[in-house]
Task: inverse folding
């Protein structure tokens, strides 16, 4: 048994212990910051289905945000759906918003939107998989009421969207957020347009 003053650990051991403590402290703060960011500002979601091919694919992992978001035509959004046909969120592209009129000519495959000032423009849709040829049970032209959105998938002939009454017009309050970034698969990491 040793008696007398206790020996202090060598300075090198104290420096290592302090470095480990500081590293663990930094990791904990970083994890807290990440959790707060993803709880308050961003959400992660995964694409289910093929309605957004060629832009997005089954099992793509996306980061979405609703912070200060105002829906705009052309945005890709995640929509809360909980009805007889859809029990999970869907991913679609906004084609028209409140006060605008959508018209789809299935013979020429043209989708046009008339704005609130009466100006009509045919959409230039280089992002779609194939020309819009598939109709459903919604009649066109269709004027979108205020606070509502008309959405479509980029895989126009393989998407159930606002052309179909099972989805119909989307209340803006159903938008969980707009797609900011694709994180998986890693080879496709980047901003989604």
Result:
């Amino acid at each position: 048994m040793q008696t007398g003053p206790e020996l202090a650990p060598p300075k090198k051991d104290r420096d290592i212990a302090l470095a480990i403590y500081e590293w663990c402290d930094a990791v904990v703060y970083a994890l807290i910051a990440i959790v707060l960011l993803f709880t308050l500002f961003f959400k992660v979601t995964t694409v289910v289905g093929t309605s957004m091919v060629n832009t997005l694919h089954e099992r793509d992992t996306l980061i979405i945000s609703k912070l200060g978001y105002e829906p705009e035509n052309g945005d890709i959004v995640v929509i809360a759906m909980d009805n007889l046909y859809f029990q999970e969120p869907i991913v679609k592209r906004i084609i028209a918003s409140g006060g605008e009129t959508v018209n789809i000519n299935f013979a020429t495959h043209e989708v046009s939107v008339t704005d609130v000032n009466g100006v009509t423009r045919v959409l230039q849709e280089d992002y779609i998989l194939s020309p819009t040829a598939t109709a459903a049970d919604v009649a066109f032209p269709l004027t979108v009421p205020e606070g509502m959105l008309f959405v479509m998938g980029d895989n126009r002939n393989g998407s159930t969207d606002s052309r179909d009454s099972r989805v119909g017009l989307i209340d803006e309050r159903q938008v969980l957020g707009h797609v900011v970034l694709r994180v998986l698969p890693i080879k496709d990491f980047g901003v989604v347009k």
Notes: The first helix runs from residue 11 to 40. Helices lie at 11-40. The longest strand covers residues 175-184. The CA atoms of residues 113 and 119 lie 8 Å apart.
